[in-house]
Fold these 4 entries.
Entry 1:
Amino acid sequence: MITLGVNAAFHDSAAALVADGKTIAAAEEERFTRVKHGKRPVPFTAWELPFHAIDFCLAQAGLTLAQVDHVAYSFQPSLFIGDRLPQDEAWEAARIPLPLDPAAQGPGDWDNPWDPLFAAYVLNAPRQLTDGAPLKLHKRLKLPDASAAPYRWHYVPHHLCHQASAFLAAPWEHCAVMTLDGRGERASTCYGRHAGQHYEPLGEVHVPHSLGLLYERLTAHLGFLHSSDEYKVMALAAMGMPRYRQRLHELVRVGQDGQFRIEPFDAAEVFGPPREPGAALQEHHLDLAASLQDVLEETVLELARWLRRVSGERYLGMAGGVALNCLMNSRLRDAGVFDEVWVQPAAGDAGTALGAALWVDARARRPSAAARVAVSPAERSAAGGEGQAPIPGVHRIALGPRTWHMSHAYLGPAFDDAEIEELLRWAKLPYRRLDDVAGETAALLQRDAIVGWFQGAMEFGPRALGARSILASPLQAAMQVRLNELKDREDFRPVAPVLPQELLADWFSPAQANGGQSPFMLFVYQALAHQRQRIPAACHVDGSARVQTVAQASMPLFHSLLCEFGKATGVPVLINTSFNVRGEPIVCTPRAALEAFHGTPLDALVIGSFLLEKKEQRP
């Protein structure tokens, strides 16, 4: 059974392909179109589907769209529309008025005057899939009869997709689940429990009460791009003092049963005038970032304590855009509320493509005799039904047995040496084949070269994890400045260290947390006091670092490189940052890697078994 998952309603457009419970491929649309996040999360882009990502996923499995059994779309329009349609009118005959100039109209029955257009686009996504693919992709995406698609289409609630992307990919058979983001159809936060072959929804919080939207709003107030630059605010937090903490706590109030409220407020009135983009950062900007981060962490910690009591589970799976906040994740890990915390690496909206596919697959493979113990609104929505009331209680939803868990994120395109060398020859570029890729790359890094590293299948999610990376030595503090200049990044931005998993305890603490591994770079560690001075470029101003550990089994070449660098320097740690520059997606193809190499001051590019180097310019 083949299930295609699609995320397209907001941003981070993506596709994933699941076959009988196993994920075959997953990728974000931005990696193919070179448009950051695929598109902006605005109503008039909701029609854009991730055709290139879909095409890749199908190609990876050797399939065409006509051979897919299910298509799962990670948004449920009936939940979003709610009771705005006449109750006595059939769904197929319903009409939504679309004003020619929504901005000139009041919202009426909607939250936003653009909402009817957004809803119409989502409702017509099945037609867009069959008719809207670019001509160059018709080989796999064109159906023999567009009016009679051979697959079944499923609209799956957005937060249910986030939930499924966590618990159906996590390394345990039982866990509590918490997902937090800006918004879905109505929910901003969702709780659940996965127990064997059942899922139990435990509650949700509805917009406008949203920790994700709060963080987005203050990101914009601080002069950064909302729904994109929240990680920059997280980095700023370490540089300020939380002197606005009490004011924010008065606005964010945690209630009973996992609920919270965010009171209306005027950011300029409470925190002063907004910072102009690009303007100098002042002390009060740093303090606001620190205060926002503090209140986020404390709020989520309180919600997690409630979830631990209600679920009775020892392990926590997380997803949603807010779960990309590694400071928050680490605070939760260190509090000991749960024994272990696991975050799905494509935790943002891209991951809902994976969650949608895994959910529909698991539902289709459930034991027929145990269809469900009770019918929840979330379940009815997942099956394409009405699903408009909030979850009134706990229901057990039957699922098929799991056949896969997410041990790595290397689910994207890969290119062999033959493909790479063909391009290098065509482009008439000087290169040489390496006899010892790990050893010779380690020698370059030892000489303080900054190296583009293009190996194997691309990562799924926003982090470069050793497949599409820029690597450098952490031994000199000046390396951070060089990397930020190369990538055209703000000078306050930290870079992340990577090391062999088995050596984590020698360099960072708490080394035993989460089973002694951090493969997805989603948790923060403290450099050990006696080691921090040896890797000054890899640590933030407070001595923290967003660590990635590499297991030999998951990425043998990358692991060998780290070991070779360790043999040469005594420090088995490298800096790993994404292979891109500011405002552009991570490179996906050899061509994109070559363009980035020649368009930046990178010293070398190791692409497959081949090395390209730049000659030093003499004054």
Entry 2:
Amino acid sequence: MSKKYYQTAISAVVVGLLSSPVYAGDPLKIVISPSRVAQDVVEVGSSVVLLQGDELRERGVEYVEDALQQIPSLIVSSQGSRGSQVQIRARGNEANHILVLIDGMRVSNASTGEYDFANLSMASVESIEVLFGPQSTLYGSDAMAGVINITTKKGREGFGGNVAVKLGELGTQSVSARVSGANQGFHYALTAEDFSTDGISSGAEKNGNSEKDPFEKQSVNLKAGFDSKRFSTSLILSQNDSEFAFDGSDAVTAVAVDETVNKQLVESTHMAWLLEWPLMDGRFNNQIQVSNISNDYDIRSFFFGANSDFNTQTERDTLEYRGNFQINSDNSLQFGFESIEESLGTQSISAFGTSNFAGNVDQSGLYLNWLHKYQALDIALGARAGDHEEFGSNSTYRLTASYRLSDQIRLKAAHGTAYKAPSLQELFDTSFGGNPNLQPEESESSEIGVEYDSGDYFLGLTFFEQDTDELIRFSGVFPTGSNANVGEARSQGLELTANKVWGDFELNTSLSKTRATETVNGVRSQRIRVPEWSANILANYHYDHGRIWLQALFRDERRDIQFTFPSQDVTLDSYTLWNLGASYRMKNQLTVSARVENLTDEDYEEVFSFGTRGRTAIVSADWAF
């Protein structure tokens, strides 16, 4: 372990333990994702983190990927400039092992089963919940490592909105506008955004790359509906279009190199309709949600001496029923049904010719969850039965408990199983080793923790462990090999959180230690891009009209892969990033803010041979009306 780590980690813990107040500043934190109904976080046995959109935007956080950086158990990795692929790994798992929901919609790419956070800004985000641990019982496939549940803004009584303008280095500029309101039960919120940046070279500058890779994005989001005592209904529409230039890789060394031809165009559409109606004086609540997610990726590149064009179109249609029955003050049941149909179509035009591929799959599931209170004890017990068109039936379960030893001390624990269905690409795409006989990846996980909350000080410690079987990997030699269930993985770790407030000064510190290994075809190795140690320190000073804040992010060294023939392991160096910012609210409802990212101009990598932004300044103005 490096000396640099010890200095950062020890300072995080010591400073956190010596400062002074409340758990995230709120005596009552309501979360939805652990049981799909509103709960106080002290009733939840699983680990859950709640981030508020307004607070993040006030600190100048523009993209969800940047917001998630402050949670050490989530490792964010990007392949270069803004707009390049962004992956999130939770507690040492793979990027397609965490389910991402936006207003209840599954938004992962049906082709890979993974969500790319590159295009997701903070403009319309109300809150972000991150629920850790196996969550397939309530959420089905993909939730092996947890759930990231994002809720967008809803119109409130009256009329209001805002206009925000941001300018920064690297030719970065952004304009967003939102109007929202509610009257006599009707509500609406409409957000539009335009973002562009000249970017940096996606290939690391230290390898001689200098050509910038620009990114631009336009998005429109609408949430509208009607609420009454008898029923509520809402319609959610989202359209995102983006264009991003990316670099290639050297055919011999596999190092990222400048390429002027490569370009990725993405069109993404999300649509959902939600109907909710209560029965039995509100004791029996029902929800039906129908959603459609479509993604169109057009990737143009220079491949093996010729221009190539690779187009992927994916679609997901989901029908879901969710019920909640309050038996009495101490017992309730949550139950539901889900039916998902996914489809994938690709066309590839390259020096090797033209190829087309199409595939689809149906899956469904039923779940039942019991919430029980007995004095200071809260229990959740759930089970799920599912069916998949290719591999057949499967089942999962989950048990969580929270016990308040006193007004200040709480014990929590969780145990459960989860699964990840093979993606459409893994099942059917023969150019990538498609194998329709694949079985789902399966995991079993446990965690136990203790929290101390005195009202002016919070300290939490959690230990977790997860075992995963039937890992899907490419087996054999290209092009005759195929995907197969040939691996297993194990992750163990601890998470420490210390939060305090002392007058106008607030300090939040968190530290994560993760040991993550996998064994594939009998060969054991560290999981890629997962540091053993990671830490976050966020200090806020609040004054009458705004705040000043300082953030430190530490990531330990990580294993990555250099994809030569044969491939070889490389080690990415540890790094510490410092971010500094301030905001000022004027009397005319105008807020101005400034933010400097990577204050010390640290040279680092999140993915082997890909670049990262150096010291970058951004200023913004936000007028609310």
Entry 3:
Amino acid sequence: MFYTIYGPATNAQTTYNRAQPLFWLETVGFGIELLSIGRNGSGSGGLWRAPTMKETIMTQKNTQRRPHGGNILVSSLLAQRVDRVFCVPGESYLPVLDALHDVSDKIDLVVCRQEGGAANMADAYGKLTGRPGVCFVTRGPGATNASIGVHTAFQDSTPMVLFVGQVGSQIKDREAFQEVDFKAMFSPLAKWAAEISDVSRIPEYVHRAFQTAMAGRPGPVVLALPEDVLSDEVFEMIEACRPAEPTCAAPAPHQLARLQDMLEMAERPLMIVGGGGWSGETGRAVEAFAETFGVAIASSLRCQDYVRNAHPNYIGHLGIGADPALARQVRESDLLIVLGARLGEMTTAGYTLIKPPYSENKLVHIYPDPEELGRVYQADLPINAGSAEMAKALALLEPKGQGDTAWIAAAHGDYTASLTIPQSDRDLDMADVVARLRKTLPDDTIVTSGAGNYTGWVHAYWPFETFRSQLAPTSGAMGYGVPAAVAAKLTCPERTVVAFAGDGCFLMNSQELATAAQYDLKILFLVVNNAMYGTIRMHQERNYPGRTVGTDLRNPDFAVIAQAYGLHGERVAHIDQFDAALQRALAAPGSALIELVVDPDAISFRTTIAAMQKKAKA
């Protein structure tokens, strides 16, 4: 490839030749272009050539300006096929904002109202697309606000790149204004945290960031951007970076052979699915494998949409407060095949359902990060492989026998029975609300939520049928649902998006209603108001009966808050009001919020405060 670079003083032309093409680096309006004009200028045959001096001048908007580090960074984002960036603007990365101005037709800049919301949106984007969600924040408080989203991306195995503005190199280590050592701060929360110290290395760092975010177990990467590196003008050729691609290990033939032998000997094999690196195709391959070999499927915490819940081999969700029948089935299984899940504390009921280090069941643990294998559970067969790669390999196996399909049918029947709405004499029962929503809305509706006891009703009574129709943090981060819904609607505008939030959860990122309004998004927000931090109250009732403190909430009128943002908002306190309120919300031209006023005694989908207090006194 030939391309032309113009020097800082004479604008003299220099032609470079590459045997292998570089991916283009476009900075329109400056004295640098790595754009192919055509083959020998005619569009056919021959070698690629550089633009002529006349062609370059014609494409320039301002020949007096030279590209700076911000331009190089944005061009590197384009090379990584970035189409959307979430941010709260900051003075520490003004050159990046300036460069984004020139590519507004290629990169959609979503301006958020708080950095925590922006980082959560980037996480949701990463979950939905499989490509890293990109977030820009300023130094100091901007970075600390965003850290919650980085932590969620780490625990949820979501590809994400967070760019943080940093003080200039010349004043570092003086505790300058908002200065933080971001490598030290983010190292425990990210796959890689680094600082770019040289403008010429920006493409290198960006490529590595995106490659690292997607490689093996996906996760977040943090890059700090000193002000001087971003503002430095460029006077020499800087090679563009190539687009990063996901990489993951695949199972070895001898491992597949051993797995096949274990399957042949098993009578009640059960697969637990979860983790990152999944797709709809991966889920379908797993379903086909389960059918062929007679394997039951359960989902790990908040990974309910990985396989179709209506599939006859699906038997339930190993989340918080898992169905007792499902817990029994896990214990009765004689072979556990864990695909992509870490087997964390929530999925294993505090490591009691599957006890480390040796599972009572035969255990095959398949995970993309080799360092996780053997870290907690010493499996009978550990396999370092990505979920997608493993699913493809499983599809090629030939069955030698089949497990107890009657056991699977009974287990699926138990799961189906668990979807039955229990009788309730309460004015507004969340199980009934969720069931009515599920019946009304499309199968591919994207459901978002944060953390809190209110999510239990969603997990229990909303069967998922489409991959990436559930966006919920396995990190247990409150405040996730609202910004995730904004990102979901921007990313998948053709799909219905519903955000569930508790009253405590909602107020942790309710400011992003303004973002929904600003971008004219149509989202349905549901705020479950029981006037308390319900999860903590439940733990207090269990562990310190009669000594509750710090959990009561005096809430605002959430419907009025929505109206203040220009959204449709109303309050529902009785189930008889819900259907009509839902239709009005769905008919609203923009986003809508329904506040659901529920009985505080209904502390979770499995018990009540009264029942807990009675048990404590017994």
Entry 4:
Amino acid sequence: MKEQNSSREKLKNLLILAARILAIVFLVFAFARPFINSNEETNKANGNIVSIYLDNSYSMDAVNKEGSLLDEAKRRAKEIAKSYQLNDRFQLLTNDFEGKHQRLLNAEEFVQAVDEVKISAANRNLQQVINRQQGVFNGAANRYAYVVSDFQQNFAGTDAIKKDQSTQLALVKLSANELPNISVDSVWFPSPVHQPNTSEKIIVRLKNFGSDEAKNVPLKLTINNQQKAIGSITVAAGATAIDTLSYSGLGLGWQKGVLSIKDFPLTFDDELNFSFNVNANQQILSINGNKTANYIEALFNADPYFKLTSVSENNINYAAFSNYSLIVLNGVSQPSSGLAQELKNYLSNGGSVVVFPSTTVNPATYSSFLTTLNLPSVAGLVTEPTKVAQIELKHSLFKDVFETLPKNMDLPLANRYFTYTENSRIAKEPILQLPAGKTFLARYPMASGQIFLAATGLEETDGNFSKHPLFVPLMYKIAFESAKDQPLFYTIAKDNVITLPSVKLGANQSLKLIGDGFEVIPDISHQNGKTLLYIADQIQKSGFYNVKKADSTLAVVAFNDNRAESNMKYDSQSDLEERFGTQKVHFIDAKKENISSAIAEKNNGTELWKLCLILSLIFIAAEILLVRYFKPQVNK
């Protein structure tokens, strides 16, 4: 029995010794931080270059349990940097894409740069960010790229995303709450013509990005800091709604308009800036044949708003074409190829032309001229009186012309008129048609401009169109729709070119773009009768900017923040995985994972120190249990 007790005592001591040795061994292993290498692409001797993109778009101003998303993103960026060695180099990248962000920093400089990041109006997509990060990598250093963002749906987009195989990319997704939001999406005018002290209308479009209907959203229109109109509008969930506001009392010159709503918590898209010019008159050119009636002169000289210039077809100043919003060819008897080419240039710059042909000349003469303008050729001349058979009342030219739609309307009569060869490849909008669908007056879109082609002239022998009640409102509407107007507004970081009418500058003259505390001299080029101002990413703040030549203000341009940030919905990990396809990308959920541990596992492989520590504790516990409860049997 004594021998049996001795054997059990010896076994107990051996088990306690084994447990103690194993506890010590696994404790030593835990401090040694062993791992299973899963990243065979890196060579630690080459050092690391770490590019960290910090999303600072408007959506990052939203709030979660950790505070604002931007503050959380800053903390995550610092955690990423701390996960690397002190001698590693870092790049900080934001939506601003500034030049200073293209240089590499040490860890201390990186943390300081992160603290300086602020919300920006600039907007980038994920592919642009990855391409920009790729540009900083050089040499044999290990390449790590991190994207810290809330991953709005517009950020990743819908297209496939490509990355360099040598770059290890990790997406750090911040937890953001989907928020309801309403934005002022756009505004526009029914007519480009603005006259002083007249009643006008502006059309407003709002967009609801939320899942609930927005009822009675208040609208306010201010022009030059004066309230001009108010209203309210209801917008269905996930839809857009359009409303029209009326106002009056405009003076001459440039107008600064703001359409605003009240919507919380996101407010950056609650205002839309726009600008437009109220002119004292509209310039129109009439090129007359040798024997033409003066109906065009009588028409436009009757209204002081129109400033008509009449010239003979033998005395045309082609260089002055860009000064006119509308050119009327009134019975030109010798339309030349030179005139056709100059009109093509004029049309390419957004000009409008009305052609009333001379029916007394050889049709072949006009055929050559019209085909040069990409219009249908003349098929023949008809000298039998024919009445217009159809009027397209739904055409925009007839909008607001008739209070009620007339029945059995008396339409114009043509005594002499050209027939045109129909060509399906030429876009055509019929306005007035003769029997069998033959053209009496039609609109042809051309490049950025438009041509209105008539089948007959304005002479009494041609018919009664010049004296018909339709003639005056139709020509006035054509003139109004021909008015040249600059864009109402531009979008920051999206529209980098401002287009102006041709500006003549002296040898040492330049244009300036001046705003609130902002002044820059943009690059300038002259193309196709227009002056282009290249602003790149120089404008970062929404508002109004004056284009000045010396002390003269040539234009006022309005800039707004990009509405791409208005949709507060986010991509999931599966959505992002779909964009990258089979490419290797690491995903880190900042809400569920510890950043440092996730990075260590990604870069070093599967770390085993936690397992070793747990095993050490298990063997220590086993030793305690053996000491307390494993007793040799006592012989009684």
